[in-house]
Write a structure and sequence with these properties.
Strand order of the largest sheet of chain A: 1-8-3-6
Number of helices of chain A: 10
Oligomer: homodimer
InterPro entries (chains A, B): cNMP-bd_dom, cNMP-bd_dom_sf, Env_Response_Regulators, HTH_CRP, RmlC-like_jellyroll, Tscrpt_reg_HTH_Crp-type_CS, WH-like_DNA-bd_sf, WH_DNA-bd_sf
Helix content of chain A: 40-55%
Protein name (chains A, B): Transcriptional regulator FNR
Keywords (chains A, B): DNA-binding, Transcription, Transcription regulation
Structural class of chain A: alpha+beta
DNA sequence: GGTCTTTTCTGACGCAGATCAATAATTATC
DNA sequence: GATAATTATTGATCTGCGTCAGAAAAGACC
């Protein structure tokens, strides 16, 4: 299946797709000219869906593309020298996966689907080339990477300084923010990851995650039904996380 | 003091400076043409030294430059909503500080000198512009940012999964690697940060850092004299960190 | 050189969260 | 839809590391 074929087949929906997908972060904020949007669209390859548990790429494989999540969720993780999995991130629709592979030309993590997931593949060499011709695209790329760096640093603060309650609250509010940003409900959503995966990510035991969630439920901070989460008391949750008056900046995981 | 003046004053030493400083990471691996090196040099401003405790920039200030450390050490940190300092990184000579400011056009962290420190200021707009003209420079920039992302993710693993011994061992070996990479001794170096700062960074109490270091000393893994550290038993230290056969990749903090 | 301040070290103690264990609830498989 | 496998919950116990406290050492400042 050639790229142009792929492109033409999806062409009619591309513009609307890009509105709230991968490229919203990459191009929309900078109002690319129509012509530029087209050029960007042309290098993007829509891939067939990944089923739950399938790999998008594996740690150690040659890096050649970054991927934008269109629907579903991915986790990235690496395997420590003791053979345990360490999750380094969850990726929701519109987010870019794989940026950490640029440096070594090899993915330093594996990426796996947590549910049925579709992605757009963006061959990095093409993207880089195109970014030379479209300065605002290049700038957006720098911004996306810079944002990732500061988000990861917030995550380091979380892991280093926060207790179990604060970690879980931060995690839930962070997800809430990410859903909200792309037009979904901020208060009510479904966790695509297991309690075990949350614990792994937050540096907590499964049992602790489960206990904290139960406790939050009992204190009427949230309402839980399996993987369905409803955040009931935002102010109290934010107090837990330590959000000052400026809610925006701090709660990024 | 104009930029060109600054430039001409230091001109004779520039090439050799760049060999093992900031730009080694940025340009040397890609063998820029002489002409390109010159163009890069021209946008770089050597700043006068910072004394211990002075700020390079503060959280919230407008972002306009990234900085390459020439000598000395910096720490970056942010102030949590509870008023405590959280250190997010230490920066040794040749490393770039400030990349996390690109996204929001504001530094999300403060940077402070741990000792007398000199830096090269690289106005980001100039760098970005120049990177359009020199593709290999742009690629290096992407690489540096990508590397930062994967390093930070290793740090997340450390904070989330490792115990006190493993954290301190990782920290020391990471410093060792960084010194080695720029031609200093890998086994013997001076810590420019206090035990408190190490603990803050690693998510440990000062007392714990002190105890671990004492214990390492007693077990003949390292030799300590105040801030002077000598790593005596590399194999055993690496075993602690969980380095497999491939030492290179894992021990980046 | 002497005083003051900060940093480092060491011990005693307590607690948050890990681990172990067993049951209950979901989800996957045929 | 029955059975197996995975995931979630809950309780009991244990422990690594934080906290508190005090002394020693190292720097800073006049």
């Amino acid at each position: 299946m050639s790229m142009t074929h792929t492109h033409s087949r999806f062409n009619s929906t591309l513009t609307s797709q890009c509105q709230n997908c991968s490229l919203s972060a990459l191009c929309l904020p900078i109002a690319l000219a129509d012509e530029d949007i087209n050029r960007l669209d042309q290098i993007i390859e829509r891939k067939k869906p990944l089923k739950k548990g399938e790999f998008l790429f594996r740690q150690g494989e040659a890096f050649d593309s970054v991927y934008a999540v269109r629907s579903g969720t991915l986790k990235t993780f690496n395997i420590t020298s003791f053979g345990e999995e360490q999750i380094t991130g969850f990726y929701c629709p519109s987010e870019l996966v794989g940026l950490s592979g640029i440096d070594s030309n090899t993915y330093p993590v594996s990426a796996k689907a947590l549910e049925t997931t579709t992605v757009c593949e963006i061959p990095f060499s093409h993207l880089e080339e195109l970014s030379s011709q479209i300065p605002s695209l290049k700038h957006q790329l720098f911004k996306v990477m810079s944002r990732k760096i500061s988000d990861d640093q917030q995550m380091m603060v979380l892991l280093g300084k926060k207790n179990a309650d604060e970690k879980v609250a931060s995690f839930l509010l962070n997800l809430s923010n990410r859903f909200k940003k792309r037009g979904y409900s901020a208060s009510s959503f479904r966790l695509s990851m297991s309690r075990g995966e949350i614990g792994n990510y937050l540096g907590l035991a499964v049992e602790t995650v489960s206990r904290v969630i139960t406790r939050f439920q009992k204190s009427e901070l949230i309402h839980v039904d399996g993987k369905e989460i409803e955040i009931v008391d935002f102010p109290e949750m934010q107090k837990l996380v330590g959000v000052a008056s400026d809610c925006g900046k701090i709660s990024h995981i």
